């Protein structure tokens, strides 16, 4: 008997099978995450010990925060994308994902989180399209200027930011992301911001054990390597040889003095005799610098490791687990779709749809 292949049915069943397998893959990943959340008990920050921990609390800004790409909102993580609406061949016009270190606080205290290599489960905060006339969404506020802002701005900085007029100097005055716009666009942005309730699963370890604190403080999702292997090897060799300076003042000199970089050090720096002396910060500003920047080597922090992946999820543990259980159920539906599609294709090949 000759094989009977109906192109339309073959194409639809093939596409459905691929979509079902993708959903199944995501569902299995969601199942693993949900089980991990459920199997790890929540610890209070004041009572944690080194090792795998689950924490829940609210986000607090550390030294710096991010400014999101599509809505210019102060946050600690965002993923922003712009697509040509309804045009798959056009591809993605813009995709940017960033994160920065922060603190999580519960009723017992706060602990610093270093997000490099983390998996983020963040809510969709902006999902909008250009309208039929081509006008942009009313709440689109594309970022102008730096993606980094200070974590605790003072009153003068906030007033200056309100009075500052954004400048798009080059070209026609339109934002660079809008100059080459073609057709309708779909804007999406997920974010985690100070004040959000989150659940974290990761490894608690002393700050001094982080191989690269500066690198661990910035991240862009699980595809970012945890550390440069060459730098990690150099640090390990320096530690073994006893040549790695653990004292920040000995290693960095004036740059280690809180407030030195903005001209208000908390202690007198060593300067060239011909240099202009810097004013010493008042006691309340010195306390703010210490609270913001100082982390003792023995202080516990939360970070990713090769043994314990770091998950940062929006909401309480129960809410985060339920979301991933729903992803698993969607994966089961995907598996059913893939099976039915394969059966339809097999029926077609056996002549079940006619000759």
Q: Would you give an account of this structure?
A:
With 355 residues, the protein is of the alpha+beta class. It folds into two domains: 7-246 and 297-349, no CATH class; 247-296, no CATH class. Helix content is 32%, strand content 24%. It has eight helices and 15 strands. A hairpin with a 2-residue loop joins strand 6 and strand 7 (109-113). Helix 1 (7-39) packs antiparallel against helix 8. The longest helix is centred in the first third of the chain and has 33 residues, at 7-39. The termini are close together.
Q: How many E strands?
A: 15
Spell the H/E element sequence. Answer: HEEEEEEEEEEHHEEHEHHHEEH
Main sheet: strand order: 1-6-7-14-12
- Using only C-alpha atoms, the radius of gyration works out to 26 Å
Low-confidence stretches: 221-226
Helix content: 25-40%
Principal-axes geometry comes out as globular
Average residue pLDDT: 77
Largest sheet: 5 strands, mixed, barrel
- Give the number of domains: 2
Number of continuous helical runs: 8
Termini gap: 10 Å
Structural class given helices, strands, pairing? alpha+beta
Strand content: 15-25%
């Amino acid at each position: 008997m000759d094989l009977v292949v109906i192109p339309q049915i073959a194409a639809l069943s093939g596409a459905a099978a691929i979509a079902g397998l993708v959903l199944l893959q995501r569902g299995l990943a969601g199942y693993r995450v949900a089980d991990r959340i459920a199997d790890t008990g929540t610890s209070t920050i004041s009572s944690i010990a080194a090792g795998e921990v689950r924490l829940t609390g609210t986000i607090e800004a550390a030294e710096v925060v991010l400014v999101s790409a599509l809505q210019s909102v102060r946050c600690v993580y965002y993923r922003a994308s712009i697509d040509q609406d309804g045009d798959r061949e056009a591809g993605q016009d813009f995709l940017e994902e960033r994160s920065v270190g922060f603190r999580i606080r519960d009723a017992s205290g706060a602990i610093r989180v270093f997000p490099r290599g983390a998996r983020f489960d963040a809510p969709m905060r902006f999902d909008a399209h250009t309208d039929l006339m081509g006008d942009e969404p009313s709440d689109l506020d594309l970022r102008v200027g730096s993606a980094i802002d200070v974590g605790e701005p003072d009153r003068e900085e906030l007033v200056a930011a309100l009075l500052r007029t954004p400048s798009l100097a080059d070209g026609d005055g339109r934002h660079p992301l809008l100059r080459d716009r073609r057709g309708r666009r779909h804007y999406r942005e997920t974010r985690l911001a100070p004040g959000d309730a989150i659940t974290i699963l990761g490894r608690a370890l002393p700050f001094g054990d982080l191989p690269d604190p500066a690198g661990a403080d910035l991240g862009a999702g699980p595809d970012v390597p945890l550390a440069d292997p060459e730098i990690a090897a150099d640090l390990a060799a320096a530690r073994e040889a006893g040549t790695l300076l653990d004292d920040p003042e000995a290693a960095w000199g004036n740059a280690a003095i809180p407030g030195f970089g903005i001209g208000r050090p908390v202690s007198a720096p060593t300067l060239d005799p011909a240099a202009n002396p810097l004013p010493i910060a008042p006691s309340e500003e010195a306390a703010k610098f210490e609270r913001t920047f100082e982390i003792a080597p023995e202080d516990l922090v939360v970070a990713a490791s090769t043994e314990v992946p770091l998950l940062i999820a929006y909401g309480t543990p129960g809410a985060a687990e339920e979301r991933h259980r729903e992803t698993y159920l969607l994966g089961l539906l995907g598996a059913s779709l893939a099976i039915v599609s394969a059966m339809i294709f097999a029926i077609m090949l056996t002549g079940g749809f006619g000759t």
